[in-house]
Amino acid sequence: MSFPLRRLPLLAIREVIKSMNTKEMFLFSLASKKSANFVMSSIPKNSLSAEFTFQRDGFLFELMPKGFRKQAVDILPEVSYKTENESMLTRFSICGLYVQCKWTGTSEVEESTRKLFHRFSKTFNKSELYMKFEDGTSEEFAIELTKFTWENGFPLNQIDFYLKNASPESIQELLNGCNEHHTSLDIETKIPKDSKCTPPPGGYKFETLGVEYAHWVNLDDFLQCRRLFFIKGLPGLTVEYLNGLLMKIVNLECRLERFIFDMNSIKPSDFPEIVRGLSESAIQQDGAWQGLQFERKDGLELLVSLSNGYLDLEEDYL
C-alpha cells in the first residue's frame, strides 16, 4: 500500500520532500505536474546543482547536491522513464544523490529538447543552474534558452558555449547577458579576426570568463572581472602594459585576482621587467618556470609566473 503523500497538508508535504534524496525528489517530480510543483516549492534555495548539456541530437540533464563530486560515484544501469511524452534513459548513483537523464532523437530535436528543458529548469529553478552548448547546437536555439533562463529569474551560474562557429552578434549578446545577470561564461567559438565587442559602461564584471580564441579581446574592457582565462591569440601586450596591469592589481585599481594569458610574444628574459616593483622578494626559477610572490594592498598573497608561453596569476597558498 503506497503512502498518500499528496493528501497531507502542504507544510507536511514540503517537509517530506526536503527529507528525500535527489533520486526520490526527481522521481516524485515525474509523477504529475502537481508533484513537480510540490518539489519546486519545497527545495531549499541553492541546495542542488542542475546541469544541462545541449547536443546536436539530444539533451543531457544531471541533478545532484551542490558541491557533489559526480566523478566519484558508482552508477546503476539505465532505466527508461517518461515525461513530456518523451522517453528518457535515466541513471542513478547507488547512493541516490546523483541523477542523469539522457534523451536523443532524429527529428524535432529542438522542440523535444525545449519541452524537457522547460520542465526540468522550472521544477528545479532554485538549484544552481549550469548550461553547456556543444558544437552542433544551433546558436539561435542556444541564445533562446539562455534568454528563457534569465527572463524567468533562474539562478544561472555558468554557460559553456562550445559551438565552433557563431556570429559576432551572438557572442556580443552572450557577453552582455552574462555580465548583466552575473553568469560566468566560457567561450570556445572562433569568430572573424576583425570582430570587436562593445563593453558596457565601466567594462565587464564577470566572476569568471574563459575565451579559447581571444584575438578579439581588448583586455582593458575586462579589468573589473575577477578571473580571466584567455588561452589563444590574445593580442600582443607589451612588457610595460603587463607591469602596469600588475601594479593596478597591487593597488586594488582592478578586480583581477586570477588569470591565465597566452603570452607567446613575451620572452622569458622579459619576466623581471614585467614584475618590476611588485615585491622585494626574489624571483623563483625552476627550469623554464619563473615566478614571483607579491601582496595586494588588502593583504591577499598572489603568485605571478611565466612558463611555456603563458602568464599565470593565482592566489599564493604557500
| Strand residue percentage | 25-35%
- Strand count: 15
Radius of gyration using CA atoms only: 23 Å
**Terminal-residue CA separation:** 60 Å
How would you spell out the order of helices and strands?
Answer: HHHEEEEEHEHEHEEEHEHEEEE
Helicity level: 25-40%
Would you tell me the overall average pLDDT?
A: 93
Shape: elongated
CATH C-level label: Alpha Beta
Briefly note the CATH topology name: Leucine-rich repeat, LRR (right-handed beta-alpha superhelix)
Count of runs of 4 or more consecutive helical residues: 8
Largest sheet: 15 strands, mixed
Q: Order of strands in the sheet with the most strands?
A: 3-4-5-2-1-6-7-8-9-10-11-15-14-13-12
What ranges have pLDDT less than 50 throughout 5 or more consecutive residues? none
The overall number of domains is: 1
CATH architecture level-2 label: Alpha-Beta Horseshoe
Structural class: alpha/beta
Topology record:
Blueprint: H1 10-18, H2 22-30, H3 33-42, E1 48-55, E2 58-65, E3 79-83, E4 86-92, E5 99-104, H4 109-123, E6 128-133, H5 139-151, E7 156-161, H6 168-180, E8 184-187, E9 208-213, E10 227-232, H7 239-250, E11 258-262, H8 271-274, E12 284-286, E13 289-295, E14 301-307, E15 310-315
Parallel strand pairs: 1-6, 6-7, 7-8, 8-9, 9-10, 10-11
Antiparallel strand pairs: 1-2, 2-5, 3-4, 4-5, 11-15, 12-13, 13-14, 14-15
Helix pairs in contact: 1-3, 2-3, 5-6
InterPro entries: F-box_dom, Zygotic_Embryogenesis-Asso
Pfam families: F-box (PF00646)
Protein name: F-box domain-containing protein
Characterise the protein shown here.
The protein has one domain (45-272): Leucine-rich repeat, LRR (right-handed beta-alpha superhelix) (Alpha-Beta Horseshoe). Helix content is 27%, strand content 28%. The mean pLDDT is 93. It is built from 8 helices and 15 strands. A 15-stranded mixed sheet has the order 3-4-5-2-1-6-7-8-9-10-11-15-14-13-12, with helices on one face. Helix 1 (10-18) crosses helix 3, helix 2 runs antiparallel to helix 3 and helix 5 runs parallel beside helix 6. A hairpin with a 2-residue loop joins strand 14 (301-307) and strand 15 (310-315). It is α/β, with parallel strands linked by helices and 318 residues long. This is F-box domain-containing protein. InterPro entries: F-box_dom, Zygotic_Embryogenesis-Asso. Residues 2-57 form the F-box domain. It holds the Pfam family F-box. It comes from Caenorhabditis brenneri.
